[in-house]
C-alpha cells in the first residue's frame, strides 16, 4: 500500500523521485496553496475566556510559518477547549485521590484520558507535537555534489576513447 501523497517540495527535497517538468507542473497545479493571513480570528463559538489564548497560539503558529491558515481556526479552538477540559478533569482526579474515592478517580480518570486524546489529536493536526513537526519539516536541498575523483577519471577515459 502506498504512503500518503507528499507535496512536490518534499519530493524534491528528498531527491528520491525523479519527475519530468510536465509531471512537476501537473503536481504543482493540483496542490492546494492557501494565502498566509496576517492574523487568525477566533471562532464565534469559543468562550470569551479562551479567546486570549487563541490569539496568542494563532500568532505563534503564524510566526512559525508551518502553513497555518484561517481554515485552522476551528482546530485551534477545539484544541484550547480540550486542553481546558483536560486540566479540569485532572483537578477532579487529584481531588478524588486526596479523598481516596476510587469510583470518582476511575470516572474522572476516564474523562481525563478522553480529553487528553482530543487535545493530542488537535495538537498533532497543527504541528504542535514534536513528532508532527518532524513530519512537516522539509529536508534541505542538496548542494552540488563535490567532484568525485573516480568519476572524473572515468569521464576522462571515456573522452579519450
From TrEMBL:
Among the Pfam families in the record, one is Terminase_4
Compositional bias annotation for Basic and acidic residues: 16-34
Q: Where is this region: Disordered?
A: 16-39
Protein name in the entry: Phage terminase small subunit P27 family
What organism does this protein naturally occur in? Lawsonibacter faecis
The organism that produces this protein has a lineage beginning with: Bacteria, Bacillati, Bacillota, Clostridia, Eubacteriales
